[in-house]
């Protein structure tokens, strides 16, 4: 995936901690994505997906969040809760690299699984892999 292709991506990050939101947004900006939409939990992310002016091409989502966690959010997206969004690639981002989390990620058919803090090159490679480029 070229820098130009990455520059055309609209990415949503779903993360409840303000500091982590800033770090993820900064990393995404460093790799050159066009825009970053931030949601504080899965419920807010579903609302933002439904009301998005531009197509979201990719989602980076935390696992543990209040109100609606990452796995429930992914289930909702994958089962079509927001029309036109069920095929958006999703990478899970977590502070806990456990076998249980990795196994649940595979069950939910997530495009990738990264441990915080994600480095720019690691995130770029995960995006490329998830988009098949």
Give a brief rundown of this model.
The protein has helices at residues 3-7, 18-31, 42-50, 70-78, 99-107, 120-130; strands at residues 10-14, 35-39, 58-62, 90-94, 112-115.
Structural class designation: alpha/beta
Order of helices and strands: HEHEHEHEHEH
N-end to C-end Cα span: 5 Å
Second CATH tier, the architecture: 3-Layer(aba) Sandwich
How many DSSP H or I helices?
6
Radius of gyration: 13 Å
Return the CATH class: Alpha Beta
What does this structure look like?
The protein is α/β, with parallel strands linked by helices and 133 residues long. It has a single domain, classed as Response regulator (Rossmann fold, 3-Layer(aba) Sandwich). The protein is 43% helix and 18% strand. A five-stranded parallel beta sheet has the order 2-1-3-4-5. The radius of gyration is 13 Å and the shape is globular.
Which descriptors would you attach to this protein?
single chain; 133 residues; Rossmann fold; five-stranded parallel sheet
Layout: helices, strands, pairs:
Blueprint: H1 3-7, E1 10-14, H2 18-31, E2 35-39, H3 42-50, E3 58-62, H4 70-78, E4 90-94, H5 99-107, E5 112-115, H6 120-130
Helix pairs in contact: 2-6, 3-4
């Amino acid at each position: 995936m070229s820098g130009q292709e990455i520059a055309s991506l609209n990415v949503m990050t779903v993360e409840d901690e303000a500091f982590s939101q800033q770090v993820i947004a900064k990393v995404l900006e460093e790799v050159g994505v066009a825009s970053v939409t931030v949601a504080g939990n899965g419920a807010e992310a579903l609302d933002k997906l439904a009301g998005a002016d531009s197509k979201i091409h990719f989602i980076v989502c935390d696992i543990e969040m209040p109100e609606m966690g990452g796995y429930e959010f992914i289930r909702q997206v994958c089962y079509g809760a927001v029309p036109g969004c069920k095929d958006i690639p999703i990478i899970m981002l977590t502070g806990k690299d456990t076998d249980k989390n990795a196994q649940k990620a595979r069950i939910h058919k997530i495009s990738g699984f990264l441990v915080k803090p994600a480095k720019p090159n690691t995130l770029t490679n995960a995006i490329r892999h998830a988009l098949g480029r």
